[in-house]
Amino acid sequence: MPQVTDVTDDGLPDALPPFAELVLDLTERIPPGRVMTYGDVAEYLGQGGPRQVGRVMALYGGSVPWWRVIRADGRFLPGHEHRALAHYGEEGTPLRELADPPRVDLKRARWDGQDGAPHSADSPRHPDSGDLPDLPHGRD
Fold first, then answer.
1. What digits encode the pLDDT tens for the residues 96-105?
2. DSSP single-letter state for residue 34
3. What global pTM score does this model have?
4. What string of H, E and C letters represents the secondary structure of 57-117?
Protein backbone atom coordinates (compact mmCIF):
# COMPACT_ATOMS: atom_id res chain seq x y z
CA MET A 1 0.00 0.00 0.00
CA PRO A 2 1.34 3.45 -0.77
CA GLN A 3 2.07 5.38 2.39
CA VAL A 4 -0.18 8.41 2.67
CA THR A 5 1.22 11.33 4.61
CA ASP A 6 0.10 14.66 6.00
CA VAL A 7 2.29 17.73 5.93
CA THR A 8 3.17 19.42 9.21
CA ASP A 9 3.29 23.20 9.72
CA ASP A 10 6.98 23.22 8.81
CA GLY A 11 6.25 21.46 5.49
CA LEU A 12 7.73 18.09 6.52
CA PRO A 13 5.72 14.90 5.95
CA ASP A 14 4.03 13.39 8.98
CA ALA A 15 3.47 9.63 9.27
CA LEU A 16 0.00 8.22 8.77
CA PRO A 17 -1.70 7.57 12.15
CA PRO A 18 -1.56 3.87 13.16
CA PHE A 19 -5.37 3.50 13.21
CA ALA A 20 -5.57 4.98 9.71
CA GLU A 21 -2.96 2.49 8.49
CA LEU A 22 -5.04 -0.40 9.88
CA VAL A 23 -8.24 0.91 8.25
CA LEU A 24 -6.58 1.42 4.87
CA ASP A 25 -4.82 -1.96 4.99
CA LEU A 26 -8.13 -3.69 5.72
CA THR A 27 -9.89 -1.74 2.97
CA GLU A 28 -7.32 -3.00 0.46
CA ARG A 29 -8.02 -6.59 1.55
CA ILE A 30 -11.77 -6.41 0.85
CA PRO A 31 -12.22 -8.50 -2.31
CA PRO A 32 -13.73 -6.94 -5.45
CA GLY A 33 -17.51 -7.20 -5.38
CA ARG A 34 -17.62 -7.30 -1.57
CA VAL A 35 -18.09 -4.56 1.05
CA MET A 36 -17.79 -3.83 4.75
CA THR A 37 -19.67 -1.16 6.67
CA TYR A 38 -17.84 1.48 8.68
CA GLY A 39 -18.98 -0.38 11.81
CA ASP A 40 -17.76 -3.72 10.41
CA VAL A 41 -14.29 -2.25 9.90
CA ALA A 42 -14.17 -0.90 13.48
CA GLU A 43 -15.39 -4.24 14.89
CA TYR A 44 -12.92 -6.20 12.78
CA LEU A 45 -10.05 -4.05 14.01
CA GLY A 46 -11.28 -4.11 17.60
CA GLN A 47 -10.90 -0.37 17.98
CA GLY A 48 -12.55 2.89 17.02
CA GLY A 49 -16.10 3.12 15.78
CA PRO A 50 -17.97 3.86 12.57
CA ARG A 51 -17.35 7.60 12.80
CA GLN A 52 -13.61 7.14 13.30
CA VAL A 53 -13.45 4.79 10.31
CA GLY A 54 -15.46 7.30 8.26
CA ARG A 55 -13.04 10.06 9.22
CA VAL A 56 -10.05 7.98 8.13
CA MET A 57 -11.74 7.20 4.82
CA ALA A 58 -12.61 10.88 4.29
CA LEU A 59 -9.05 12.04 4.96
CA TYR A 60 -6.96 9.21 3.49
CA GLY A 61 -9.27 6.83 1.57
CA GLY A 62 -8.59 8.12 -1.93
CA SER A 63 -5.61 5.78 -2.37
CA VAL A 64 -7.62 2.60 -1.61
CA PRO A 65 -10.88 1.08 -2.97
CA TRP A 66 -13.02 3.46 -0.87
CA TRP A 67 -16.29 2.27 -2.45
CA ARG A 68 -15.93 -1.05 -0.60
CA VAL A 69 -16.48 0.63 2.81
CA ILE A 70 -20.06 1.81 3.06
CA ARG A 71 -22.85 3.00 5.32
CA ALA A 72 -24.81 0.41 7.31
CA ASP A 73 -27.93 1.05 5.19
CA GLY A 74 -26.09 0.21 1.95
CA ARG A 75 -26.45 3.69 0.48
CA PHE A 76 -23.64 5.07 -1.66
CA LEU A 77 -21.24 7.75 -0.42
CA PRO A 78 -22.99 11.12 -0.93
CA GLY A 79 -21.42 13.11 -3.73
CA HIS A 80 -19.68 10.03 -5.16
CA GLU A 81 -22.70 7.96 -6.19
CA HIS A 82 -21.87 7.83 -9.91
CA ARG A 83 -18.23 6.86 -9.34
CA ALA A 84 -19.22 4.23 -6.77
CA LEU A 85 -21.91 2.80 -9.06
CA ALA A 86 -19.35 2.47 -11.87
CA HIS A 87 -17.00 0.56 -9.55
CA TYR A 88 -19.82 -1.68 -8.30
CA GLY A 89 -20.77 -2.48 -11.89
CA GLU A 90 -17.16 -3.32 -12.85
CA GLU A 91 -16.75 -5.57 -9.81
CA GLY A 92 -20.17 -7.21 -9.91
CA THR A 93 -21.14 -5.97 -6.44
CA PRO A 94 -24.72 -7.12 -5.65
CA LEU A 95 -27.13 -4.17 -5.57
CA ARG A 96 -30.72 -3.67 -4.47
CA GLU A 97 -31.67 -1.97 -7.72
CA LEU A 98 -35.37 -1.69 -6.89
CA ALA A 99 -34.52 0.56 -3.95
CA ASP A 100 -34.73 4.27 -4.68
CA PRO A 101 -31.94 5.23 -4.77
CA PRO A 102 -30.14 1.91 -5.46
CA ARG A 103 -28.17 0.44 -2.57
CA VAL A 104 -25.60 -2.27 -2.03
CA ASP A 105 -27.26 -5.57 -1.08
CA LEU A 106 -25.49 -6.16 2.24
CA LYS A 107 -26.89 -9.66 2.68
CA ARG A 108 -25.05 -10.77 -0.45
CA ALA A 109 -22.10 -8.35 -0.63
CA ARG A 110 -20.93 -8.09 3.01
CA TRP A 111 -17.42 -9.47 3.58
CA ASP A 112 -16.65 -11.10 6.92
CA GLY A 113 -12.88 -10.95 6.59
CA GLN A 114 -12.60 -14.69 5.97
CA ASP A 115 -13.15 -15.66 2.36
CA GLY A 116 -10.81 -14.28 -0.25
CA ALA A 117 -8.16 -13.32 2.31
CA PRO A 118 -5.05 -15.44 1.92
CA HIS A 119 -3.55 -16.43 5.24
CA SER A 120 -2.54 -19.66 6.87
CA ALA A 121 -4.17 -21.10 9.98
CA ASP A 122 -0.83 -21.10 11.79
CA SER A 123 -0.27 -17.37 11.32
CA PRO A 124 -2.97 -15.55 13.31
CA ARG A 125 -3.82 -12.01 12.32
CA HIS A 126 -3.60 -9.30 14.94
CA PRO A 127 -3.10 -5.51 14.59
CA ASP A 128 -0.04 -5.53 16.88
CA SER A 129 1.69 -8.14 14.74
CA GLY A 130 1.29 -6.09 11.56
CA ASP A 131 -1.59 -8.28 10.44
CA LEU A 132 -5.33 -7.97 10.93
CA PRO A 133 -7.67 -10.11 13.09
CA ASP A 134 -10.53 -12.15 11.64
CA LEU A 135 -14.10 -10.85 11.96
CA PRO A 136 -16.40 -13.18 13.93
CA HIS A 137 -18.74 -15.30 11.82
CA GLY A 138 -22.49 -15.05 11.96
CA ARG A 139 -22.98 -11.40 10.98
CA ASP A 140 -26.03 -10.45 8.88
1. 988 788 899 9
2. -
3. 0.73
4. HHHHHHHCCHHHEECCCCCCCCCCHHHHHHHHHHHCCCEECCCCCCEECHHHHECCCCCCC
